Each structure stands twice: as C-alpha cells, then as structure tokens.
Amino acid sequence: MKSMLRLSLAAAIGLCTALPVQAADHKLIISSWAPPSHGLNAIMWPRLIKMIEDATDGRVTAELKLGIAPPPAQMDLVMDGAADLSVIFHGYQAGRFTGTKLIELPGYEGNAEAASVAYWRTHEKYLAALNEHRGVKLIALHTHGPAQLHSREPVKSLESISGLKVRIPGGVGGDVGKALGATGIQVPAPKVYETLASRAADGVVMPFESRKGFKLTEVAQNVFELPGGLYRGSFAFIMNEESFEGLPEDLQTRLKDRVFGEPASRMAGAVWDEIDRAGREATVSTADNSINPASPGDIQAFKKIQADVIARVLAELKEKGVKADAAYAMVKAELTTN
Predict the structure, then answer these.
(1) Residue 7 has pLDDT above 50, yes or no
(2) Which residue segments constitute the domains of the chain, with CATH numbers given?
C-alpha cells in the first residue's frame, strides 16, 4: 500500500513539473535609459515588476528594454506608445515642470524613502492640480539622496567651485550651480563617465549611487560632501494611458490600490537609499578615492544660497497657483514622521 502511495505521489509530482507555467495575460514594455548594472535596472524595475505581478496574481508582467531612447525622450516615448512604462528625470525636461522643483530644494533632512513618500503625499494634496504629467499616467514619484560634487581634483571649499566646469542637471540643481559660480554643462547621466574621462568637465553633481552606478570612482576620485546635499533629483514612473486603460477593470483597480502611488514611491526611494549606500561603500573601499566634508563655515555660507533658491522656487510655484508655503511645510513635516 505504501509503495503504491509513493508511486502515485511521484506520478503527481512528475505531472505537476511537466505542466507549463501559465504565461501572463498582459506584458508591458519598460523603456529604461540607465546602464544595465545600475540600480534602476538591476533592482528598482525588477521590484516594481514583482509588485505588479503579485498584485495581479501574475496576470500582468513587464519586460525591461534598454537603449530605446535617451533620457530626455522618455516622456514623449511613453506618450506615443513606443513603450508602456518608463522613468523620467524632471530636470531633463526644461520648462516642462515646475511643481516637481519642490522636492529638489536643498536643505531637506531624511533619506530618499522618507522624501519619496513625502513627495507623493504632498503632490496629491498640492501639486496634482497643475496636471504637469498630462498625456501619461503618473504611477509614482521619487527622489534620490542628497547630490554632492564629484571631481577629478579635490574640492575642499565652497568658494573653489566657482569657475569649475560642472555637469549639473536642470531644475533646482542648475539654480544651485549658477549660484555657486560654476559653469554648467548639461549632459544626461549615462554620458557623465565619458564627459569626465575626456576632461570636458571638471566635475559632476550627482548622488552617491553614481560612484558605483556610473563608475565615478574611476574618473571623479574626489567627493565634496555637504550635509543635505546641493539638491535632490525628482523622478516619476509613468505609463502610457491607453496601455493602462486596455487592462481589465479588475486589474486596473488592483494596480491602483496595491502598487501605484505611495507603495511604488516608497519602494523606489528605499532602493535609492540602498544604492546610495553601495556608492559610498565603493568610494571608501577604492584606494585613490576620498570624501572631503564641507567645513562649518561652508555649511553656513551655503545656507544663504539655499534660502535664496528656496525663495525663488516657492515664488515660481505661487505664480502657478500652488499654495507653496503650505506645500513646502508639508514636505518638511512628512519627513519628520516617515
């Protein structure tokens, strides 16, 4: 009898393993612009795909494709339906976004996860009415950690930044660079390595993850670190509207309730904290790399620059009809509770 049971069990197991795994009903195409090994592609997108699969019981999945278009083209790429999903960096879209500058401001405390949750909540209350992501479905907002100056030659004071050729993104990062007297060079993140290697720039302003994600340990051996950073970058996960509306209503509801919005924003921010730590570790463990902390005098000097930048951005937001002071206060308050 026991022998027959073992045979029956073995047959059942064999049958189960022979059955094909059921394919998803819907496959979304993701366009991504970072290098394959970058945390965006190696960690963040896979985690979002898992969140989507878990929420839909595997009925919706996604496939990551690299190099379809450069970073500044991702918004239009998704609007046109050439990809279903992508992530955009708002600073690459000159003149297209204003509300997103709120999270880019220098001086915020807290990590990227807390900042991303604060960003989403504040966006829902104060910024969504601007409708700046019209043409696509906004599914998450997040920020990277504090951006620091990475350079070939050591930079050990704030005033020595003046006159340097520095790769700085648009948005608030550009405002800060201008205030510091740097000559701004705008190139997308995937081009920073060759820009530094060719000596077309003296340095770049990026978060610590770039030390590993874009191999800055090889071409920008020095970091000038300011508490809170020079700015924070603003990102959005976006989806083609027709792709979303083409999903069955029950799957749309699951994605909206379990993935899109705060859950995906929190996940993305948490991943950025993870890859920022990896970038710092790569710097510390590389023999010819160094981290030069800003002096107390430089920290005080930057506070005036910071105050001027904040005032200008809040004025821009007020012109757009945003209750800017309340929105700014909400971000800071949320950062203390998350």
Answers:
(1) no
(2) 26-144+233-276 (3.40.190.170), 148-231+288-328 (3.40.190.170)
